[in-house]
Design a protein that fits this description.
By secondary structure, this protein is an alpha/beta fold. It has two domains: 123 residues, Aspartate Aminotransferase, domain 1, CATH 3.90.1150.10; 224 residues, Type I PLP-dependent aspartate aminotransferase-like (Major domain) (Aspartate Aminotransferase, domain 2, 3-Layer(aba) Sandwich). The chain is 40% helix and 14% strand. The protein has 13 helices and twelve strands. The termini are far apart.
Length: 355
């Protein structure tokens, strides 16, 4: 009798290419992170927390969920804090999926969606995005919800990672409606909300089958503290709290979030620079060069190019990391993060030598 459950033995660990990233040798455009440091107020708050001599005390979350609710413009009771957006995904999968259940994950999707659903022994049903323009396969998803047996969760990544393309909010509503009638929960992943402005938080009161997950890892730049949150109706969150541990979010994360939310302008300035200056500059350059990219609502661009390896290696040689990612047909392409205007200038100079 094997020591481990069958599904675990058959899975592979998710091992993103992290090696060498913590040295400061590279410009990091490979993990969709913020490319410059977080707010000075966050750093100050973290230093004060250490000096306060409270590391020996278990974490308590007190005001932080209320502050997040205020920021997200939702009811206080509609949010719980999690250890990164990843933990939100994980506890939702653990709450709803068992061996042999089916989960709809349109392809390509974010790695942790597959990982968390896979651990539960769920079977992936993967309607594919359009490989010409990266658009969302709405009809296929609706059709699957209507006709497939044993669908127990639908995961929507909006905007999609890695493609960057959005799902129209009216289309999300159609999916929620079809799924609600069949008691199927829908996870709407809004990890890139600050960049895209796309949210279905206004549907929470109407749809008891809706979960939203978000993160402080991206625009706020708090990825090292690992903090995110789930938005849903109170009764759903009560169930999730049976799965999330009482201390899973550490106090550095809480302190960082409270300070970051006080200095929201710092995050907004970065988002404006990325979305209004840096990204249009990169898009203009790519258009000029005749390099295709999908329309993106996030802080990254997906390039459905044939010479992905030459681009990835050529940029790495010049100190810039970008990420190989599969397109809807399974071909290896490139996902490029967009950082500050200065980062984009460096990227353009490097691309010029390759293209
Ligand atoms: C689509 C998507 N969802 C969730 C996350 C989770 O982020 P984290 O666990 O760092 O909060 C990410 C991070 O890359 C992401 O791209």
């Amino acid at each position: 009798m094997p020591l481990f459950r069958d599904v675990i033995r058959k899975m592979k660990p998710y091992k993103p290419p992290l090696e060498g990233r913590s040295d400061r040798d590279y410009t990091l455009l490979d993990f969709n992170e913020r490319t410059i440091g977080t707010s000075p107020e966050v750093k100050e708050a973290l230093k004060n927390f250490i000096d306060d001599d409270r590391l020996q005390v278990y974490p308590e979350y007190g005001t932080v969920e209320r502050e997040i609710a205020g920021y997200a413009e939702i009811k206080d009771s509609h949010v719980i804090i999690t250890n990164g957006g990843d933990q939100g995904i994980d506890i939702i999968c653990r709450a709803h999926l068992s061996n042999g259940d089916k989960v709809i994950i349109p392809f390509p999707g974010f790695a942790m969606h597959y990982q968390s659903a896979g651990i539960q022994g769920a079977e992936f049903i993967e309607p594919v995005y359009n490989s010409k323009d990266g658009s969302f396969p709405l009809d296929k998803v609706i059709d699957l919800i209507k006709h497939q047996e044993r669908i127990r969760l639908v995961i929507l990544c909006n905007p999609n990672n890695p493609l960057g393309t959005p799902i129209e909010i009216d289309d999300v509503k159609l999916i929620l409606e079809e799924a609600k009638g069949r008691d199927i929960p829908v996870l709407h992943d809004e990890a890139y909300f600050e960049f895209s402005g796309i949210t279905c938080k206004d549907f929470i009161d109407k749809y008891d089958n809706l979960y939203i997950i978000r993160t402080f890892s991206k625009a706020f730049g708090l990825v090292a503290t690992r903090v995110g949150y789930v938005i849903s109706q109170d009764s759903n969150l009560e169930e999730l709290l049976k799965i999330r541990g009482p201390y899973d979010v550490n106090m550095f994360a809480k302190v960082a979030v409270l300070a970051a939310l006080k200095d929201r302008g710092y995050m907004e300035d970065y988002v404006n620079e990325v979305m209004k200056v840096s990204k249009p500059k990169l898009e203009g350059y790519l258009k000029n060069k005749g390099v295709k990219f999908f329309p993106s609502k996030a802080n990254f661009l997906f390039l459905p190019v044939d010479n992905s390896e030459a681009i990835i290696d050529g940029l790495k040689d010049q100190g810039i990391l970008v990420r190989p990612k599969q397109d809807p047909d399974g071909h290896k392409r490139v996902r490029v993060g967009v950082g500050t205007s200065e980062d984009t200038d460096a990227l353009i100079r490097a691309l010029d030598k390759i293209l």
